[in-house]
Amino acid sequence: MARLADYFVLVAFGPHPRGSGEGQGQILQRFPEKDWEDNPFPQGIELFCQPSGWQLCPERNPPTFFVAVLTDINSERHYCACLTFWEPVESTQEVVCAEDAAEKEEADEGGQVRLSSTAPAQPGQLFAPKTLVLVSRLDHTEVFRNSLGLIYAIHVEGLNVCLENVIGNLLTCTVPLAGGSQRTISLGAGDRQVIQTPLVDSLPVSRCSVALLFRQLGITNVLSLFCAALTEHKVLFLSRSYQRLADACRGLLALLFPLRYSFTYVPILPAQLLEVLSTPTPFIIGVNAAFQAETQELLDVIVADLDGGTVTVPECVHIPPLPEPLQSQTHNVLSMVLDPELELADLAFPPPTTSASSLKMQDKELRAVFLRLFAQLLQGYRWCLHIVRIHPEPVIRFHKAAFLGQRGLVEDDFLMKVLEGMAFAGFVSERGVPYRSTDLFDELVAHEVARMRADENHPHRVLRHVQELAEQLYKNENPYPAVAMHKVQRPGEASHLRRTHRPFPRLDEGTIQWIVDQAAAKMQGAPPAVKAERRTTVPSGPPMTAILERCSGPHINSARRLEVVRNCISYVFEGKMLEAKKLLPAVLRALKGRAARRCLAHELHLHVQQNRAVLDHQQFDFVVRMMNCCLQDCTSLDEHGIAAALLPLVTAFCRKLSPGVTQFAYSCVQEHVVWSTPQFWEAMFYGDVQTHIRALYLEPSDDRVSASQEVGEAQSQDDERSALDVASEQRRLWPMLSREKQQELVQKEESTVFSQAIHYANRMSYLLLPLDSSKSRLLRERAGLGDLESASNSLVTNSMAGSVAESYDTESGFEDAETCDVAGAVVRFINRFVDKVCTESGVTSDHLKGLHVMVPDIVQMHIETLEAVHRESKRLPPIQKPKLLRPRLLPGEECVLDGLRVYLLPDGREEGVGGSGGGPALLPAEGAVFLTTYRVIFTGMPTDPLVGEQVVVRSFPVAALTKEKRISVQTPVDQLLQDGLQLRSCTFQLLKMAFDEEVGSDSAELFRKQLHKLRYPPDIRNTFAFTLGSAHTPGRPPRVAKDKGPSFRTLSRNLVKNAKKTIGRQYVTRKKYNPPGWEHRGQPPPEDQEDEISVSEELEPSTLTPSSALKPSDRMTMSSLVERACCRDYQRLGLGTLSSSLSRAKSEPFRISPVNRMYAICRSYPGLLIVPQSIQDNALQRVSRCYRQNRFPVVCWRSGRSKAVLLRSGGLHGKGVVGLFKAQNAPSPGQAQADSSSLEQEKYLQAVVSSMPRFADSSGRNTLSSFSSAHMGGHGKWSSVRASGRSTGLGADVGSRLAGRDLLSTPHTNGAPSDSGFLRPQRAALYIIGDKAQLKGVRPDPLQQWELVPIEVFEARQVKASFKKLLKACVPGCPATEPGPASFLRSLEDSEWLIQIHKLLQISVLVVELLDSGSSVLVSLEDGWDITTQVVSLVQLLSDPFYRTLEGFRLLVEKEWLSFGHRFSHRGAHTPAGQSSGFTPVFLQFLDCVHQVHLQFPMEFEFSQFYLKFLGYHHASRRFRTFLLDSDYERIELGLLYEEKGERRAQVACRSVWEYVDRLSKRTPMFYNYTYAPEDTEVLRPYSNVSNLKVWDFYTEETLAEGPPYDWELAQGPPEPPEEERPDGGAPQSRRRVVWPCYDSRPRVQPDAISRLLEELQRLETELGRPERWKDAWDRVKAAQRLESRQDGRGTPSSLLVSTVPHHRRSLGVYLQEGPVGSTLSLSLDSDQSSGSTTSSSRQAARRSTSTLYSQFQTAESENRSYEGTLYKKGAFMKPWKARWFVLDKTKHQLRYYDHRVDTECKGVIDLAEVEAVAPGTPTIGAPKTVDEKAFFDVKTTRRVYNFCAQDVPSAQQWVDRIQSCLSDA
After folding, report:
1. Closest CA to 1292 of 1427, 1407, 1402, 1420
2. pLDDT at 879 over 80
3. Global pTM?
């Protein structure tokens, strides 16, 4: 029983002591006046009576009532029921207060105070509040309202009842606390009230507060407040009603059940205490809405406005939501409870409305929803309780990590915060007790879980469950619903407005005190009414399950995977190491999954006997590796108990190092974050303590029956009992035990805990002290021992720490200090742990002191043991690693650094990891990296044992290295974090290597330095191409590189000397390749321009003017020059003679000029140049001034058909540069000279035009409108071939500009108006293709014989950037995030490489077209050595079939790329000077263009695709001298250009790539294209759209069996295996072998049919002793084939080899035709916007599809022409019948028709797959008259009906039969 009310207080208004306008509360009377002993009077009660402040009021307000809650220091809540009414103020009080108020107002308004001697005129009566307060510890709001109301009614109505008696009775009334009893009370005023107590005290009483809260705020808002309160945020309620504030707070607390809110809880906060809101701790507070403004600046408070129905969450606050699916389920159930009609709203025939449940019932239903929610959230929580002590009081800890792990909510923010919160800690200590009274929640969480899981998807069953729970909650609050018979006197209506009020009387203290005393005396006599609690063992319920079964791909463990783990472990312990090794990678992969890790721990447990398992070294390594793999995925909390399961094992598994020295597994698994986490150790400790304490009480006691059978039964029962069950039993028996027995049990428990603490101090020292004290710093950083709060996240493992050689050296002097330091850190860590757990589990202080003394000794002892272990472990032989495989080297290639052990890691190409190609993963591979004078080579074996004994080789030339970066990676086997190196090469190889732990950092650094030295040699002479032939050739003494033999020397000296005289010394500088103008010539060189090329001769000051006469000394030079490729080609093209006399060859328009033989005019040009016959040599020097690098226009090719010439030059000098030259003081007057040079330029161009036969006579021809420079502007008619952006380049308007065709009708596509004056009837004789930026200032030719074509081209730096991205796309460097082709294609597109290829092809096709039409073209772009070279070479290749042969292509490259000075060294970054500029593959881009043309015209090229790849690889490899240096001049300087003849040369290895190709071609046909069948007159016009371009497989393919296949000698076979591993048995060799697409070179392993036949032929011929070259055999076969075909009498040979089946790609791309106005040039490029002329577009429409393989390579006609003949075919609607030649093709399953029999261009195709029927037909209008009706037949396809007519009836029948048989065959 308890007092209903503790105190009755009367509080009235009193003036403020400081005289302010506000008053303050004054306690007039309180009863009893003495405090109760068990319950002191709460202070500050007057503040809570008027929370908004004490103020006078001008009118009499109705009485108000609310209940405020105060919390005392012991967290006891006091309910203060306040009834306030207003009384008129007495006069004196009134005057004082009114004056105060008036003064205050005036002060506020005017700032001045008006003093008044007389009282002011009365504005009206004022009223003061007075409050009756009842203070109680019980929460009976209605009883308080009734009781105070009765007292007020007696006072107001003047009833004849003594107030003192009523108040006395109220204070002495006692009521039962709980248990569902009811009590009727009366206060002695003829009243009666019934008080009901709830059935179970622990369930909160909510009345209607929860339902009201939902009504005011809505579901989502209440759920946020619920989560906010649970996760300890600050919640503030606002309302104008105090009662509502109190109800809202009460409702929120009721929702939190079974958790109790343990922070600040003030439902009604007085205004004077508003600063409480800025407290840092969480709270739930209610404040009157009037003070809303004061709450605005609170940053971290969630504000719920009850009147407005809003919840405001500040930005800085994150409320974690409930975990899904609970969030959505709860939301749905709440809406079903609150709005039952929502489900029926859409029904067509809604049922009659059901009555909604009453507010009280709805309140309980809402609470039931939250009760279910908690049961689902905390389901199985009792399985995670650790009972640490049972007596004298239970000590219980909750294993939070295990709970989260088993529920699958490790990542969940909400549950994590709830479990860490104070409320949950209270929940554990209150509800964790195993023996206590239970309530609804305990039953729900124990017994209803299965039902809740089953009901999840059945809303109506959920609702039914909710209603059942609601019934129970309602019954708990209202056990006797019928007996609510209250009878209480109430004051009359509007009684507060009566004027005749007398003030509330002063009560007689004596009377009330006497009544209270009487009652107290009576109570003392009566026995205390203690309600016996029904205590039971709390049920644990079913074990927990995950809230949401998450299936995360690789981490689900199938039974098969667990089987693999078990097998591997059994192999290890059976000593079958080879088997275990094979399974290990699969096991390590499986161990990513939780079940496999548990399985591993379980299996290892089985192999431990008596806490010890001694293993041999290999077994030990295996076990340690698997443990490390398990532990590396453990978080610091170890949610899944993996570390906990392994902890006993790491101290059990060991190996003997030497007699008396044993190494345990713990010394090799220390570096995991979990060991340095205090929470992990605490959970482990409590778990072990629980096990021991349970065992303590389960020990069979003496008085047990000793019959073995019964003991066995008892034992099995005991085994099933959990620790909580045991504890519950013990708590039940505790009161019955004697005092001594109780003492004994407490002591036993305490010593159990103490012994565990010692055990754990040892365990912790094992796992925290590193094996090697020199690693102390390392460990401290990783394990975070220095600062335990910051447990590190490093998941680094150190397996086999024992067998790692001394990799961490320490200075011996610091060793001791370091050791002490680490020991100190470990001691502090263990002491903190011991303090915490011992204090919590009640260890005596003596024992605790003893422990603190013990810990340092334990640590010190362990350190001494470890020293011996460390010493011995270093003596262990290192782990047997695979023998290094030596790579094969080229002749002359030498090893610079011997193999460093590395792991080669996957680089993102799918092939190497067994991706798209299939097969097991070849990478990662374990082996070594070698550095030679020529290459970086990796050789090794895959780490995946399933691959077998395959050797992996990946190499690239040192010269091809483009990027090298250090990386830190995990080694694939041990998962150690190691330093690595990533090397990327421009030959599309990538070495991503992790150094083995035995490779010191200095070795790795040495490797990098040597690599760098070889990559960028100080001089070009140090490259492999030079050192190969001289210093390292075997069998000959090394010779100094400079000594090139006398004839070389004379020649070089001669040339260089003369050149230097001519040029002046500064010209030779190699710093930057921008030669100054000729005006600089006589000046002495500046100091800093030091000549880097050593030349023996002094510089002679006199300069040499180039003259046409040859001096005798130069003759040798000349003869050498004439032998060069250029000259040979000029003679082939008939481009002039080497003669200076004009008279001799007037007829020839061009001549070969030796003006540059000394490289005086232009150092990057060849010595002999083709210039117009009419231009004198001395004029050339002036012309050259106008062009960049002095590269003036020279002829490089002439069309045999149209006689148009192709010229090339550098770009024109910009205005600024010309101006610069003018400013220099020059020998002749500057202005005149500049003018003369530009005049010379015009003369020169005029001479070029005149030298063309078509235009020679038309020099005086008049033309249309002037060519104003406006047309050269941005919106000129040429538009631009944009380099930026992704436009398609030459748009339609380029074509129209050239054609002048669609200008007549439509405006331009780009919006420029059509300019009729711009038309010209005649094409220009010369088109100058130049950079848009340069051509701006060029004067157009007034006679318009030449025309400028400004285009935008990309620069070299854009090529470089694009190539960089292409490299990244093809060899990403790391596995793709999203596997599949999409990411590759995306990055390929980003690189814009194909767009640049498209541009080049497009410009080239344009130039080809112009040349073909008879106009000459001058390509004058950039400096004339990059894009110019690409375009000029491509144009010649497309126009001239000679260049498509092996010899011709060589000539083309030698002429255009080598002689005309493409800067190979600069672009390939061959020297330190080029290092900064980086690798720019201009030549490779050209080869890619050739490859694209080759793909489209496979029968036009004599060389194969392999030839192009070969050149692409070796132009960057520096194996040959061909592609070194930047110009012929530099090659002459080094004596490279004119190799010596004679015997000396025979021994030298191939220095030239061409020589090598020649040699190789004799041996093998790999450079030859078997499908080569050229047409002599063919001009190729390839498609250039990006959609027609293919990615070159040179970029993407690789063979890991032998490395790149371009060094033929190396590719003959894999590296030899080491001697021991050679198979000795003579097993029969099978001819079959497995071919892996990514590993083997498929062309080699599976040669094509022709290669195979040729090989076979060669083998047989060799056996016969008359070896024949493949080429001879091939030529013989071809000749025989031709002969056969002639004898057949057919015009067309029927051979596979020489097929003249027409290419579908002959002459596509650009068409020339005669346009409407004179002869115009119509350009129709492969773009959709091509100019809209009907002829051109119809021709395009007739193009055949490129999609089928058949149309590219058509085999002999006999094979695929099943039946052929003439048929008449009816055209489309209104079209006549026409005779066509029809071919029925069974192979392709189609019926084709041609115009004539001899035609090769097919007019149309009927696909037989679409044919539905063949039926007899009828003649229609226009059918052939003479033919019989029965000769007509129809072929019906899915699209249309074709009408045919044969020549007679039998042939018609034959056609129908043939077609039918084709259909039936299919």
Report:
1. 1402
2. no
3. 0.55
